[in-house]
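Practice problem: predict the structure.
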Amino acid sequence: MALDWTNDPATSDVYTTVLAQLLERDVAAVTMDFTDDSNIPTGAIRWSVANSRFEKWSGAAWANLSTALTDVCKTANNLSDLADSGTARTNLGLGSLAVLSTVSNANFSGTDLSVANGGTGASDAATARGNLGCGTIAVENYPLAVAKGGTGAITAALARAALGAAASGVNTDITSLEAATNIDIKPSSGAINLITMSASAIGFSTNGVGRWGIGTTGTLSPGLSNTYAIGATNAVVSTIYSVGIQGHADYNFTVKGQAGRGIDFVVDGSYTAMTIIGTTSANYLQVFNQGGNSTKAPQTVAPDDWWEIRDALGVARFIPLYAAS
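Answer:
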């Protein structure tokens, strides 16, 4: 029932009405619920379920009780209204760690933090290494020795020396190159020299077979006798300069021209003294005169000797030879 706190109960009310009104006032005061009441006394306190807070009646409206209270902590102040924050921390059982932004060796105390919690579980280096499963290499001083997988040095030059490696510049300590598919040499100037020391020869191999070699006397020789040629039909040598060409005792000496090509014998650097003209059917020999005419008359003067020349069919032809007159 609605209750008028100023006028209920009235003197004209019957006994039963008065008892009901008194009961209603007691319930409203105990539950602090004045929802349906009127003429509520100024300063009355209620609990607002809708606002989840205590409210005070000003005589005209309900106001948040916390705005009118003193000596209480207000949620909006985030504990800044405490008179003594240090005493408050002490009362809460908080130590000095509660006001630190960082923790260092100077202000740390307590038991060693276990490995499971992100620590080492130890207060000394040796025990910490053991707890972390570190081996003896963890205490090795660098540089690490070559025998233990290091270079034994703190500079590139000392490391190469310890490893027996060569530098990227001029090297005098390379004794062998293996499994190299390409050696690209690009000098900035001058020639490329392949030099051996003392009595060492230079060998050239392909497919693991020695093809050519330059001996200690400078002679260029094939790895297998009577096997390799200089040049090929599709890659010929323009000129070979030599003071002499000597055949081998075990092989016929052959001067070979390709089909349809002749063979010129040149003297004095440019004069063609003799030409063997090659054709598809026969070979013809032309000998060019370099002196005066002979005084000998063929067929009337007996020759001193003959040259026999056979054509492609094997038919013999004879050239008379005379002693100089």
